[in-house]
């Protein structure tokens, strides 16, 4: 389940402290993920403070979901992020929970067609 929704992200930029608070983690973890995941590139102001866009916050949400909730290793999370798998954890979980009876019915239709072709 995602911790943040795109509709909830109303600001243009979020500080690292705000992002860490959203996920209830230390700022050091956000900095670590920034180093490990090249797709996270926060802007920095003149002081060097990191400023995260809502898009980057959603990427961090995806990483948090994969690593903390699903138990992926960092390498596994990197591969999943690179592969372009669903950017939305909710969509991904919904895709996996397809009604199995519909799937079985569809497979049986295909089987019947193949048997008809064989005959």
Task: Tell me about this structure.
- With 119 residues, this protein is mainly alpha-helical.
- The chain has a domain at 6-85: Multidrug-efflux Transporter Regulator, Chain: A, Domain 2 (Orthogonal Bundle).
- It has six helices and three strands.
- It has helices at 16-23, 27-36, 54-69, 74-82, 89-96, 100-118, and strands at 14-15, 43-44, 50-52.
- The protein has a three-stranded antiparallel sheet.
- The protein is elongated and about 75 Å long.
- The N and C termini lie far apart (49 Å).
- 16% of the residues are buried.
Name the features.
single chain, 119 residues, mainly alpha, Multidrug-efflux Transporter Regulator, Chain: A, Domain 2, 6 helices, 3 strands, 59% helix, 6% strand, elongated
CATH architecture of the domain at 6-85: Orthogonal Bundle
The overall pLDDT average reads 84
Largest sheet: 3 strands, antiparallel
User: What is the end-to-end distance?
Assistant: 49 Å
Given the C-alpha coordinates, what overall shape results? Answer: elongated
